[in-house]
Amino acid sequence: MAFGRSSRADREGASLVLQTKAPETNEQSTPFASEESFIFCENLVKIYKVADLEVVALQGLDLLIQRGELMGIIGNSGSGKSTLLNILGGLDRPSAGRVTVGGRDLLKLSERNLVKYKREIVGFVWQQTARNMLPYLTAIENVELPMVLAGRFGKKEREWARELLDVVGLTPRMKHKLSELSGGEQQRVAIAIGLANHPPLLLADEPTGSVDTRTAATIFDMFRHIRDTYGTTVIVVTHDPKVMSKVDRVVAIRDGKTSTETIRRVAINMSDFSAGNIVLGETHDEFVVLDGAGRLQIPRDYLDKLSIKKKVRLDLEDDQIIIRAIPSDEADQPSAEEKEASRKRWGLL
After folding, report:
1. Cα 134 to Cα 81, 178, 253, distances in angstroms
2. Three-class SS of residue 165?
3. CB of 211 within 8 A of CB of 240?
């Protein structure tokens, strides 16, 4: 569930307003139909143990992704986005929660079925070239390799490898080895490799982190073409917020939970239609995500602007939930419930 962002300052002090009743609209709502989604993540938790230290990478993350989406996942370093990618790719298992991809429960898959899942269902594009290609093979040999490892290779597979290299614009370079390709060309070969076994899901981890802006735009155009041509669900993990202009939807992760969601829409200006002019533009709707436990993350700029810290007051007024800031000195004082709990703990009641 998501709420649109809004704020106001009224006579009772600074506050945030959440509208609980959805406004009437003719637009089709985002098709978030729980378990009918291609990817379904519910209350995902991932805890890493390093010696005696526990690091919580995911803290109850919820996420729904539809088949055929081209979406981005953004977040600062340590936010949990790469951990989520590893879980979706079958490279890691969550500590708790539920995750399904195409109806497959990744927590319940046996090791054998997990290997099959990684080979047939998901493709990877890594930022590090060494994880994508073998340096002593040519571009086309690298694309053919996943099919050889899957136990199927012949004329049909060879033609498919050539088609993929043509899709990423590298037909003239198919006989070149890693050292003879530029950084952008290597990433484009990596995309072809990720698609070699016809996976319905393609995961890309910082695919444009080591290329220039022009090459990055070309790579995202390829992702869109692949989605449109083959129906592949493409998920791009990045720290670059500019990705929202290249994908259909962006989910931001903060502190191991989904924080905000931005949906890209195409705006059509028909005002000059009589003259034969139709102007296409873009607009973005941003929402704050409400998880299954009723938690949401208020954007940091809102908290800073209204000096909201530690505690707030909640009021329900008609179809709105109002979050009211309280003075900092009052916020530092324990509530009546906290005082009672403290007395009980020390045997004073």
Report:
1. 27, 8, 33
2. helix
3. no
What is the number of other CB atoms lying within 10 angstroms of the CB of residue 71? 22
Whole-angstrom distance, CA of residue 39 vs CA of residue 200 = 11
| Nearest-angstrom CA–CA distance, 137 and 178 | 7
Give every CB contact of residue 83 below 8 A, 6+ residues apart in sequence.
46, 57, 58, 92
% of the chain beyond a pLDDT of 90: 40
Spatial separation of the C-alpha atoms in residues 174 and 168, rounded to whole Å: 11
**Residue type for 91, please?**
L
Nearest by Cα to 333 from 311, 304, 349: 311
Strand 257-269 and strand 13-19: the pairing is unpaired
pTM (2 decimals)? 0.75
Nearest to 68 by CA among 289, 229, 282: 229
Q: Which residues of 149-165 are buried (b: 16+ CB within 10 A; e: fewer)?
A: eeeebeeebeebbbebb
- What confidence tens digit (pLDDT) does each residue in 103-131 have? 999 999 999 999 999 999 999 998 887 78
